[in-house]
Amino acid sequence: MATEPDIGARLDRAPWQRLHTTILIALGAGWLFDSFEVQMFSSAVGPLGDHFGASVFERDAVLAVWLGGILIGAVVGGSLADRFGRRRLFVATLLWYAGFTVLTGLSPNLAFVYGFRFLGALGVGAEYSIVNAAISEFMPVRVRGKANALVMNFWPLGAILAGLLAYFALDTLALSSAVSWRYMFVLGGLVALVVLFFRRRIPESARWLASQGRTGEAEQIVQTLEGVQAPSVPLADETSRPVTALSTRSALAELLRHYPGRLALGSLLDLAEAFGYYGLFALMSVVVLPQIHISQSGIPIFYIIGNVGALAGGVLMASLFDRVGHRRTVGTCYLLSAVAVAVLAIATQSGSTLWVTLAFVVANGVGTAAWTSAYPMFTELFPTHLRGMGVGTSVAVGRIGAIVGTLALPTIASDLGATASYSLVAAFWLVGAIAVGVAALNGGPDPSRRSLEDVAPLRAEPVLL
């Protein structure tokens, strides 16, 4: 009977099948609707705040609550995915956050909005861990990086759809503030359920099954992905060995003991991109848009154009990811993101709507290329039985950057000026680039076109990078 490394090697060599396409779309669609819901809130928070008479702080607190929920959900979801499998969590997290998104639209007061947003964010945080872990484990090695990056790039597509909905709901339909935000949340939650049509077809990760000693079931799924007619019932496996699932604390302890450098790299990359990406949008609303005097009705169009740039940047990166190398791509994109923020600062000072729009397209494009390349890279650095927890912990650290960036940058811009804010955002992107450079100098592996079992075998001794 096949061993765990054998299962991984066969998955890496498998020809592209229709099931691979289904998995890519199903997991990417989850990111699309996560983004759709997040971006939709940016358009809905104004009418929502007006409806409940919320102060600026109370409106910002809704976002902070959301990011805090993602932080907790990423760790818990990653741990659950490592203990109970990827497939169960695919459906559970989707139903969870879709349900609480609908309930947000039905909230009778601001307290319920806080509660439902936090609960919904737990599901989104879990998605970060589960989707990234699963897509790496399914895809053949020759296209794993490209497939991972394409899944991540469903995010800007969701942002574009959210911008279109906001434009029609808030402008074309001219709905009152009392109902427009409710329609957006309810519709967003219901539409997300479309993903269930695709996700019900995703099998369990064969790599995860093998890591749990369930090699008979893993063999059946591998045969399907190889294009072989698999038996209708799991193959008998007399050599199966039951594996005790690690608790959250035990999994984190093992990561810190055996993979401290890799966990540090993942955490720094996510911290840098979260601060840089969310910080960019915080500066847009507080510094940039007031400077160029875009009308309220023109803001959704401005963001739609910016997210078209994000999609273009991410897709271009995906096409080069495996050829250029994962580590080199990530480091270059983080460095370019820092430069793009500086260009945006110069464009803002010019006061030209055209130059600011072009600069935002570029900044959003390279920023999206940066974070959509970073996730696949650090996901590949952890072994299968710890992958969900490794990604979840990295994402949790990153959400701290998102919270600080979103809440602190407006104050910094007000007290110290826009230049200080731009400099801080650029500095965080540079931190990510430096972290990749340090990993390279210390001999850390570049995961591109290498088997996951080769990049992250289960070891008894510590692995620094």
TrEMBL record:
Its main location: membrane. InterPro entries: MFS_dom, MFS_sugar_transport-like, MFS_trans_sf. It holds the Pfam family Sugar_tr. Keywords: Membrane, Transmembrane, Transmembrane helix. PROSITE patterns: MFS (PS50850). The chain crosses the membrane at residues 21-41, 61-81, 88-106, 112-135, 147-169, 181-198, 275-294, 300-321, 333-349, 355-378, 390-413, 419-441. SUPFAM superfamilies: MFS general substrate transporter. This is MFS transporter. It is found in: Cell membrane. Residues 23-444 form the Major facilitator superfamily (MFS) profile domain. It is a multi-pass membrane protein. Gene3D superfamilies: MFS general substrate transporter like domains.
